[in-house]
Structure formats: structure tokens, C-alpha cells
Amino acid sequence: MIGYLPRGEDNYPPDLTDYLGDQAPARVALLGKQSIWFKRGMPLLALFCSTKARASIILRVHDLAQKWRIGGVTIISGFHTPVEQECLAVLLRGPQPVIVCPARSLDRMRLKREYKESMATGRLLLMSCFGDSVRCVTADTALIRNRFVAALADVVLVAHAEPGSKTEELAREVLGWGKPVFTLDNAANERLLALGVLKYFAAGMPFARQGRPTARSAIRSLETTHRDSSV
Predict the structure, then answer these.
(1) What is the pLDDT of residues 193-222, one digit of tens each?
(2) What CATH number has the domain bearing residue 143?
(3) pLDDT of 225 strictly over 70
(4) From residue 182, how far is each of 26, 48, 72, 199, 200 by CA, in Å?
(5) Are the CB atoms for 102 and 128 separated by under 8 Å?
(6) Is 0.90 topped by the overall pTM?
(7) How many domains are there within the chain?
């Protein structure tokens, strides 16, 4: 059964209005284990990656997904591009909860078999910012969805963004919000690093401790992890 969080009510995610302002959705729809959202105790990490990515980046995301699925973080994403989809396939084989945000309404959406299985075990939540009439995925709805995902997350990881891509534009925007944005330490990401995006050093976990961090504490935790791993 689909649940709804109307804008203006107490349970509406405040980060949506904080970051998206007047463009925040009128309501948020949820389908699946809603306690994944309401009772989450782990940091929420948004994952983005351009459609095209080097093999080294694909392998790195796969390795990270193997760690994420064990614990310590909840991943939220549209899981639309090939790299994101591969990550989701790994995550759904683990015990950790996952939040999938389709670029369309949840109304009359045909669920994949793996979605049904993960929902049955309480490990998957679908969240959408679209009204019931939006039933087709387009480039425009994908962009809206990605901003929605980024606004909800505590920290954003852009595994790779092609130069001049919508993913790179999103990274620029989220940096402007003051939210922590990270990318993989890879030569293909030099342009992102030049924008001020930080290197993702943590061994699979973006934070050293449980709980939803502030932007400053998230960065401090990552820096501590990097220093410790360099000793």
C-alpha cells in the first residue's frame, strides 16, 4: 500500500524544502518498509554515476557495494544507469535496507521480482516525488528525481560524471547547497575534483560512527578514516 507525506505536514522531509525551496514536491509517496525512512539510524548516502564510466570505476563501485550491503549506511538512488543498477543488484543480496527512487509515480508501477522479494523481507523502500499522472520516465523526470534524492541524502557520492553531463551539473548544484559531495579517486574524475568535490577515502563506509551527521561532522569523519588508513 502506498503511503503519502504531504508538504506542510510534520512528517514531510524538511530537507526537501530546505534545499529545493518552491520546487519541493507537493507530496512524497512511499511503498515498502516505511520504517526504513522513519526509523533509520544510519547515514543516508546518495549514489550517482553517469551512464558511461571506465571499467576501473565500475569495479570500484562494485567493491563498495559489497561493503555497503553488510552495514553502516543506507544507500538511496534512482539506480537507473548501468553502474547504479549493478550496485543495486549487489545491495539487494545483503541485509542492509535500500531506498530506490524511480523517475515516475509509484501508482500502477509494475514491480520487478527482486523488488517484491526485498519488500517481503522488509529491506526495500520505494520513494517518489511525482504525482500519479507521471507514469513515464523521461530525461526531465530523471533530473527532478536526482535532485530529490540529493536533497534527502546526508552525503552525496558521484562515482563519475561525464564532462558537461547532467550528473556534473547536479554535483555543482549540491556543492552550492553546502552538502558534502564525494567522488572516487580516479583520473576520470579530475574535473569533479577541480570543482571542489572531495575524494571518497573511506573503506566502504562514509562515516566513522552511526547516526545522521551534519555536513561538517561527515567530512571530519571521512578525514579521520583517511588518516587512519594511511598509517
Answers:
(1) 999 999 986 544 444 333 344 444 444 444
(2) 3.40.50.450
(3) no
(4) 29, 10, 17, 5, 5
(5) yes
(6) no
(7) 1
